[in-house]
Predict the structure.
Amino acid sequence: MGGSTRNCGRAVESVLLDAAGTLIRPRRPVEETYGAAARRFGVELDLDKLPQAFDAVLDEMPDLAFDWASTDELYRMERNWWRDCVRRVIGSAGGRSVGDFDGFFETLYEHYAHGRVWECFPDVPPALNALRARGYKLAVVSNFDSRLPAILRELGIWDQMGAVVYSSEAGSAKPDPVIFNKALAQLGVSAEQAIHVGDNPRADIGGATAAGIEGLLIRRGRLPASGSKSTIGSFADLIVRLER
């Protein structure tokens, strides 16, 4: 393959990519969106507590991955998972009760289903173009739900991917290696021919390693540890690393 690169003795032909926190992010801080929605339903949240509450609840939640038999069943299970998550977050952030919780939840759930409320990190579009121009096969591997494809389409990322594998549909969530193996199978490459880039040490680096894939942790705005071979500061660093 013309775009293959020898990397640490491996012939890299594909790049697997996490979605939220790596490729994309909400345009508006999550706490602002939750706070504004809560006020519409008569509840004031402690916005200083909400980011920590959100992270803590996500760590406690079961995997966003399901055994489903129909699309309708999948959608129902996804919504129930997020309804439970949001209820816990609101409780942890000072919102003892929301009179119309279902209305509040649906407002948030539908809000985050649209690409217009998300954005690519600035370094992503040029990097994806450069990777494609060099012949690398690209795939998204994400702990996400069935809203992801529409978001990626609206952001112009979908058509650049050879595969988009998200946990709720795959029935496997990172760091389980199964979700990585599904992406490799769709791309038609082996673990030794791939690298994975993500922002979560356990889910992305631990999961990639368990699948036999080299993992790179992206830490935008932070200097990697001296001599670190597994951390990059941007996607521009990824391009440089692949070209060595």
About this structure: The longest helix spans residues 71-92. The chain has ten helices and ten strands. The two ends are 17 Å apart (CA to CA).
